[in-house]
Amino acid sequence: MEPLLQVSELEVQFGTYAGIVKAVRGVDFKIFPGEVVAIVGESGCGKSVTAQTIMRLIPSPPGKITGGSVQFNGEEIFKKSERQMRKIRGNTIGMIFQDPMTFLNPVLNISTQVTENLRVHKGMSIHQARDRAVELFNLVGIPEPKLRLKQYPHQFSGGMRQRVMIAMAIGCDPKLLIADEPTTALDVTIQAQILELLKEIKERLDTAIILITHDLGVVAGLAERVLVMYAGQIIETGTIDEIFSTPAHPYTWGLLKSIPRLNMKKGQKLTPIWGQPPDLLSQLATCPFLPRCDYAMEICTREMPEPFGRNLVKCWLKHPQAPHVQYNREVS
Fold first, then answer.
1. In this structure, are 32 and 125 located in the same domain?
2. CA–CA distance, 120 with 87 (Å, rounded to integer)
3. Chosen domain end from 171, 199, 218
4. What is the largest CA-CA distance in the chain?
5. Domain span holding position 24
6. Strands 63-72 and 5-16
7. Can you give the pLDDT of all 332 residues of the chain as single tens digits?
8. pTM of the entire structure?
């Protein structure tokens, strides 16, 4: 099967007063039709920038795509004009943005905002678009859709706004849906409902989904593959079973240890990842996780690890060619 989306050696940077921030550094991955892939990592690791680059939404300046390729349906995204991209955004590629509380325009009613995309991309009349909006609201579980379409965003809860955003994103039956932290700022009950809704959409429409999140626990019941990002790089990939049962990178171990578990004892504390992510103004000639890693070796201070194994792990710890000499942090 040919990949629906193929990202190769993607490089994105931002010009700031302090210097050049290299936000995405050589990212490679593929998405196949009907597949759900999660991109996980801490805030600031490059997840959202990668998603926005796929949609060509990086503002320039200050942002700049300095290298790489993004192919969607066999066509190069970076070679398309802005007019061609407007036909793709919201049509064949849908996106659920991060903050439902600020995404919707507060001065326009919901009907105007939901039907606009349908009229632009599908050429529907206003009546056809409203009928389609009612269908979408029923699909995403918004009660009394005809009444709700007449209302304004401030009359919706956070969970309902998120459902409106999902309805807008899937209105044109996209082949690829990018969900950028769709459960952020929602309580756990609503989170579960949103994730279940995405699962239903995937099964009903056979839509490929990129799920961006910082919480590995969120993706356990939805994703098929996981890409772990750190410092603008993908440091480990694998199926959901591989990442949860046999993770290989110390950073992935840290993410898993920070998830609450049902078998935890009362009063038991979570294990945080100590330290801070690296400054992306720097070149990062060595392993970016080195300052926070409890398993660092001397080779980690000299060379950047090349990805190896089935999961393409960027770590010297289990590398077959690594001299396993422990790094003495106190001496250094």
1. no
2. 9
3. 171
4. 73
5. 1-92+174-278
6. antiparallel
7. 789 999 999 999 998 888 889 999 989 999 999 999 999 988 888 898 999 999 999 988 888 999 999 999 889 999 999 999 999 988 999 998 877 777 888 999 999 999 998 998 988 899 999 999 999 898 888 889 999 999 999 999 888 888 898 888 888 888 999 998 887 766 777 778 878 888 888 888 888 999 998 877 778 878 899 999 999 999 999 999 999 888 889 999 888 888 777 777 888 787 888 888 888 887 788 888 988 888 888 888 888 888 888 888 888 887 777 666 665 555 44
8. 0.88
120 and 148 within one domain = yes
Reduced to 3 states, what is the DSSP secondary structure of residue 178?
strand
Cα(137)–Cα(132) distance, integer angstroms: 9
The one-letter amino acid code at 20 reads I
Alpha-carbon gap, residue 293 to 113, rounded angstroms: 47
308-309-313 Cα angle (round to 5): 55
Distance of CA 197 to CAs 97, 221, 274, Å?
A: 16, 12, 35
Paired tokens of 120: 């632009």
Residue in the block written with tokens 């859709």: 145
Phi, psi of 308 (to 5 degrees): -145, 165
User: Any bridge partners for residue 95, and if so which?
Assistant: 178
Q: Note whether 136 and 218 are same-domain residues.
A: no
Q: Can you tell me which residue has the tokens 């039956």?
A: 173
